[in-house]
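User: quick one
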Amino acid sequence: MSQPTIFVGGDAGIWRVLRIKTIIGSSLPESKHVNICGPGAPISAQSAWMLRGTPSYERYVNRKEHDELTTKTPPLGRPNATYAALIPVLKSEAWWNLSQDERRAIFEDHSEHIKTGLRYLPAIARKLYHCRDLGEPFDFLTWFEFAPAEECAFDELVATLRRSEEWKYVEREIDIRLVRS
Amino acid sequence: MSQPTIFVGGDAGIWRVLRIKTIIGSSLPESKHVNICGPGAPISAQSAWMLRGTPSYERYVNRKEHDELTTKTPPLGRPNATYAALIPVLKSEAWWNLSQDERRAIFEDHSEHIKTGLRYLPAIARKLYHCRDLGEPFDFLTWFEFAPAEECAFDELVATLRRSEEWKYVEREIDIRLVRS
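Assistant: Done. Structure below.
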């Protein structure tokens, strides 16, 4: 079993906030830094916000896609990947009330979520944390790491996803851009 | 978003334990009663064990199966359904490392998990709580309610599932039988 990881927005942390943009829904309080705390790590009492999520098993990816993703996905923490993005996402009840096959059809057949992500590998490293079952304000915390030179590519990636059918079900999304300090 | 529900094994609670059988893996401490505490409810400090799980979205069911399940599934709390079973289940890492299509194939195409459950509806009411992402000792808490006359049918249902290919991936399972007190 996996324990939740905690993302803490506050005055300290190895990731310094470059900008926070609320894409849809209500915003988060301002914070200058983001810290990532593994299970059991001490957490500063002084924080603007805390978001929990658990690295979990895959929900939509088939074996062929899984193998392609595994082959192409780089590790986190590459020395040149000094830029990061933390993008918490909440989807609507309408999304969660769809059956598994309907969600998969929208996710990949109509929206090409996996295919789109694959085009930006290995430049943009990605890790997904699940939080819907934790009673958190978001369903997912998505984490990306890339070199500063890849920022335009990353902007293109998120713009493509935000134009997709899948994103019609997104009710709250905040785009937090970070630089390693 | 859903908050976790807490199942508490202890000396008090509306469900009295008839018997606890460890099917596979390590057991739970003895308890005479089980109480079900909704989000935010006060929890007695004196408990033998506490297990948390969140009612969540469906992971394997397609639209046709979803509609059939919804039509046939009775509500919980039927006056004549005075027997219940709480069956916490932990699956292996090998299960969770399978891709979504591989898990679905084992779950239904090979093991007929949904088809088997449907045969016992509406006699046996069922509710599933997810806990893998919560860092709990189990992945699922399954809850069933039925009339005492349906006990043999329920034994048959769980025996059928335990013989399935899916159950080769079950590492820990405890079968707690209860009567409403």
